[in-house]
Design a protein that fits this description.
GO molecular function, one term: ATP binding
Membrane topology: Single-pass membrane protein
EC number: 2.7.-.-
Helix content: 55-70%
CATH architecture of the largest domain: Orthogonal Bundle
CATH superfamily of the largest domain: Transferase(Phosphotransferase) domain 1
Number of domains: 5
Pfam family, one: ABC1
Shape: globular
Radius of gyration: 32 Å
Number of helices: 24
Mean pLDDT: 79
Structural class: alpha+beta
Distance between the termini: 72 Å
Number of strands: 11
Largest sheet: 5 strands, antiparallel
Pathway: Cofactor biosynthesis; ubiquinone biosynthesis [regulation]
Low-confidence stretches: 497-518
């Protein structure tokens, strides 16, 4: 694995040199000791021809060449226009669905291998030129023999070795960080990388994506908020997925949305409601919500409906995490910072010995300046910096199981800034959360909890019976007492390890009742009797 990581490091270094990314780094206001590195790097000792590319294009092409993990990082960055210059954000947006496709003939061969049939046997029309191409797969438009318009998604070949190399480096860096830094240990980098490893490999299985899409479609069946395309299971395989083709406007195409007079305020508010519904009602949320995967229906622009595709990455919460998160948010909306602090201590997210008053004051310092402000007036960079300072001061640990949720929140918040910067996130989310909390203590919910507890009674009774049986015979599985073992030893030593025909091998020290076959036992007894008689 170390050799694999070294090969990958050399590959990354070549890409950095090719696209002059070190020039972009040293143009930043860095400390003097980091700026001094420019004189140490060997490839900077010789004159280099300038590239006829903008800085955004250089960064995009570099991430594109480095493969899926780097492309996904660029996709996340592309939604954060509040953190990036406009020219870089525009270039990184191309990583969402305009990654260069692989050879179309190879794509056709892969599809035919997976389906076990020729393209013409399954589709009445198949567009060889890809409709779109992303980091993990590309899609082709087609029409089934039965007349349905579909898209065919096929996994890029040769991804696993590249992903394995990147993950090897991430694990090396994570373990090194945990060894040398107490602050890094609070972030649990190894656990985070392990969770990401599972997520990225799951995304390579299109049957899993099809199952996720089917579940999400059921969760929002008939909803005016979200539409999920239909999956055609007969033609889905581990590396090929066939689903309904949708027609909509990409969510970041603000000009087209404005032309059809889309209600942008309602669109942004419905995005927040969809997120909270997925997280708290269903505990099953789309965790790859970059703009390339989200469209807006053209049917009712005055009551806009989202369309979600690419469900390869989904997240869920345990009931415990869901409960703690909901109560934290509810207390936050009420500006009950003491309750927020207490919940963090109770859940183990900060050490139990943390001083409640000090932690409450730190949370108030972070949260109060951003409350009741629209997204456009919130400096995300300052909030993030204060959160890091608070986490370090109070040894707050990152929860690896919430990393996907935090990533989704980044995408949602960045998307909201583009759609409707005047959105009041707090007033939009609070009514939904209050309604969800009320439903949790409603008679219907309580009856459901009682029913689930009753269903556990047979299992609990079996556990109780097994426990009572062990208590009634506490020494049944204990080894024989020493005096009993010594009593049998003289006879077993006399028998030794004689191998009798049709019998067994008697191991020295083994109990007498372990004689394998009774005829052999009789023969041994008769032989001893004759010896004694003589």
């Amino acid at each position: 694995m170390k050799l694999l990581a070294v090969r990958r490091l050399l590959r990354i270094q070549r890409v950095v040199i090719r696209y002059r990314l070190d020039d972009l780094l040293f143009d930043l206001p860095l400390p003097w000791f980091l700026l001094a590195l420019r004189y140490v790097l060997p490839w900077r000792w010789f004159p280099r021809k300038p590239l006829d590319l903008s800085r955004g294009a250089r960064l995009r092409l570099a991430l594109q060449d480095l493969g899926p993990i780097f492309i996904k990082f660029g996709q996340i960055l592309s939604t954060r226009r509040d953190l990036l210059p406009e020219d870089i954000a525009d270039e990184l947006m191309l990583l969402q669905d305009r990654v260069p496709p692989f050879d179309s003939q190879l794509s056709v061969r892969l599809i035919e291998e997976q389906l076990g049939k020729k393209i013409g046997e399954v589709f009445s029309r198949f567009d060889v030129e890809p409709l779109a191409s992303a980091s993990v797969a590309q899609v082709h438009a087609a029409q089934l023999k039965t007349g349905e318009e579909v898209v065919v998604k096929v996994i890029r070949p040769g991804l696993k070795p590249v992903i394995a190399q990147d993950l090897a480096w991430l694990f090396i860096l994570a373990r090194a960080a945990e060894k040398v830094s107490a602050d890094a240990r609070l972030l649990h980098p190894v656990d985070v990388v392990s969770d990401y490893e599972k997520t990225i490999y799951d995304e390579l299985d299109l049957l899993r994506e099809a199952a996720n899409a089917s579940q999400l479609k059921r969760n929002f069946d008939g909803s005016p908020l979200l539409y999920v395309p239909q999956i055609y299971w007969d033609w889905c395989r581990p590396k090929v997925l066939v689903m309904e083709r949708i027609y909509g406007i990409q969510v970041t195409d603000l000009a087209t949305l404005a032309d059809q007079r889309t209600d942008m305020k309602m669109l942004a508010e419905r995005g927040v409601e969809i997120f909270f519904t997925q997280v708290f009602r269903d505990s099953f949320f789309h965790a790859d919500m970059h703009p390339g995967n989200i469209f807006v229906s053209t049917v009712n622009p005055w009551s806009p409906q989202y369309i979600a595709i690419d469900c390869g990455i989904v997240g869920s919460l345990t009931p415990e995490d869901q409960d703690y998160l909901a109560r934290n948010l509810f207390a936050f909306f009420k500006r009950d910072y003491r309750r927020v602090a207490q919940l963090h201590i109770d859940s183990g997210w900060v050490p139990a010995e943390t001083k409640l008053n000090e932690f409450e004051a730190a949370i108030r310092t972070v949260c109060e300046p951003i409350f009741e402000k629209p997204l456009k007036d919130i400096s995300f960079g300052q909030v993030l910096m204060r959160l890091f300072q608070t986490a370090r001061r109070f040894n707050m640990e990152v929860q690896p199981q919430l990393v996907l949720l935090q990533k989704t929140l980044l995408n949602i918040e960045g998307l909201g800034r583009q759609l409707y910067p005047e959105l009041d996130l707090w007033n939009t989310a609070q009514p939904f959360l209050e309604r969800w909390m009320r439903e949790r203590v409603s008679p219907k919910a309580l009856i459901g909890n009682v029913q689930s507890q009753l269903e556990q009674i047979p299992h609990l009774s079996n556990m109780a019976r097994d426990l009572l049986e062990r208590m009634s015979q506490p020494h049944a599985s204990d080894p024989p007492p020493p005096w009993k073992k010594r009593k049998d030893d003289w006879f077993l030593r006399l028998l030794g390890s004689a191998h009798l025909a049709g019998g067994t091998i008697l191991a020295a020290g083994g109990p007498l009742h372990e004689l394998g076959h009774w005829p052999a036992g009789i023969m041994v007894a008769v032989g001893l009797y004759l010896v004694v008689r003589r």
